[in-house]
Amino acid sequence: MPRYALIAEPDSHRATALLALATQEGLEGVVARDGAEAQEWVRQRGAPTLLVTDLALPRVDGFALLAWLRGRSDAGGMAVVVVTAFDELRVRAWQLKDALGIHALLSRRAGPEAMRDGVRRALAGQLAGGGLLESTAEEEKQRLARIDELKLVDPGPPDAQLQELVSEVAQAFGVPVALLTLVLGDRQWFKAHVGLTGSLARDRGTPRDWAFCHHVVQGREAMVVPDATRHPVFRDNPLVRDGIVGSYAGAPLITASGDVLGSLCVIDTRPLMLGPEDLAALRELAGRVAQSLEHTQASSRIRSPPRAGGQSEPVLTEASALALVREAVRALDVPVLVVAPGRKPYAANAALAELMGLPEERLSGMSFDSLCQHVANLSADPGGTLRQLDLAAEASRGLHLTLTLERPRPRVVRWVARPFVVPGGVAQLLSLMDLRVGSDVKGEREGLLRQDALTGLDTRRVGEERLSKEIGRCRREGLPFSLVLVDLVELGVLNRTRGFDAGDVALRELARRADGLCPPPGFAVRWTGDTFLLALPGADAVGAEAVRQLFHDVPGVPGRVSVAVTVQGEEDPHGTLSRAHAALARAKPDRTQDPGRD
Fold first, then answer.
1. How far apart are CA 22 and CA 99, in angstroms?
2. What pLDDT, in 10s, does the model give residues 115-126?
3. What are the protein's UniProt keywords (predicted)?
4. Which of 86, 131, 319, 331 is deepest in the core (most CB within 10 A)?
5. Whether CATH 3.30.450.40 fits 137-298
6. Is the pLDDT of residue 179 over 50?
7. How far apart are CA 79 and CA 25, in angstroms?
8. Is the Cβ–Cβ distance between 63 and 94 less than 8 Å?
9. Is the peptide bond before 558 cis (omega within 30 degrees of 0)?
10. Is the pTM of this model over 0.85?
């Protein structure tokens, strides 16, 4: 059996830490960011000596990955360490440990020593860890108290902006259902939803023990269930049995204080083939939504209610009242400014200072007119923006404006002015909320999914769409179609020996080269973390081989292996890709025999 460790972990930071543990045990390590990529590594290299995997992997979940591995004849001596955040998934895995060949089962909360001990025990063939629940009653009590404090459960109709948000999320992910849920004591409640019908839409919730989002809240992490109908934890869930949930992905709504309110999730009736980039995008959106919910609710109740029992509140002066507000806004992560009566900026927080490109103390010391002028100067039309910002600090109601700022970087923000009474007059609480949460969710989400941030190339999702269209077009026009797959087999070594910055530089240079070899209508795709795909409409096998050879003319590291494949007849695009992946897997062991594969 090849002496290597396979780390199946979507989070790159955690994967690096786990990789270091494997290296300490004398094993070469490779990382797969989802279950399908892990399967591909095994097809190429055989079953690993050590597998460290999460259970909630994108594309192919951890349970399915383990079952698949146990069906291989070369996996008999493989040591398996499972590390997951989700208590109930861990309990089920412990029940199935013999069938799945699990040696160590650890919580995300386990420290480095426990992780190291689990790896060593697994390699020695010993059991480590178990299926005990680790969530505490005190944490749950605090979480529910925070939901009550923010008064997020509203019996009225769903908020229009939140409804728009979930609609755009559903469209961006290409699923019929998207939910913004709050997980309460005995149920989950849909604060906003799209795609639900019948009693689910009418009741706006389900019992908590039906809720996939319950697991997200308990684990405090994003969770994906690619195929719930085959999942050992979820296949008997009533929502799955009734055909409502076939797959699920959700990310936690975590407040600035660290409490988990619920989840932003997407649901399909079919298997959900979201990749790790999709899950990261969903996690980022959920974080912004939680921040927006917390800020909106907190700032709308800036005055304290009367005490129970008729006790009078302590008498506040203007200075003491504003001081209390100042301490509150400094703890917020959204840009906020307190304006004292008489249009006097009083206190800003670090988030606003960053947005404005000014120190906090300067913001608090400038006049209100100077502040408005500075904001106007950040826009493309200072005069028009300044007219919009002619706010009356003594106004009886808040003012909402949408501003387009060009500096320090382009963004669209909502300027919200909310008045509140203090001794001596009316103050204002100004907040500038980034509209990437809300009306621009779809655009940002599409950007995250369609373009790789490091290389600027298309992502795999976009590549699959374009491949299908271009192969169809070439078939209609009687043209050949070829593709080249390039695997950067030494990228991991480069990252470990020279650092990830060096790896990023190499990836960007190779991406530039790949893009240059694919003139329109051809295109290059960052297929996985260390694999590029070059699509060559109109190129036959000879032309594709020439492009493959040219790609290897790029000097320097990392070393790479590549194959060229041409579409055969009426072959389905997925069939072409499968042939290409199989050819690449076959090429890797023999890379030193081909001078064109450096």
1. 24
2. 889 899 999 888
3. Kinase, Phosphoprotein, Transferase
4. 86
5. yes
6. yes
7. 13
8. no
9. yes
10. no
HSE toward the beta carbon, residue 71, CA cutoff 13 A: 8
Matching CATH number, 451-593, of 3.40.720.10, 3.30.70.270, 3.40.50.2300, 3.90.780.10: 3.30.70.270
- What CA–CA distance (Å, rounded) separates 354 from 368? 18
Q: What is the mean pLDDT of residues 27-52?
A: 92
Omega prior to 345 cis, within 30 of 0: no
DSSP 410: -
Domain 320-434 has CATH 2.130.10.10: no
Spatial separation of the C-alpha atoms in residues 415 and 434, rounded to whole Å? 9
Q: Using CA atoms in the order 408, 338, 434, 298, what is the torsion angle rounded to 10 degrees?
A: 160
In the 3-class helix/strand/coil scheme, how is 321-355 assigned residue by residue? HHHHHHHHHHCCCCCEEEEECCCEEEEECHHHHHH
Q: Please report the sign of the dihedral spanned by the C-alpha atoms of residue 351, residue 356, residue 358, residue 363.
A: negative
Give how far the C-alpha of residue 444 lies from the chain's centroid of Cα atoms, to the nearest Å.
Answer: 13
Which phi and psi angles does 223 have, rounded to 5°?
-135, 135
> Which fold, 4-129?
Rossmann fold (3.40.50)
Q: What confidence tens digit (pLDDT) does each residue in 563-586 have?
A: 999 998 888 888 889 899 889 888
- Residues 169 and 180 sit within 8 Å (Cβ to Cβ): no
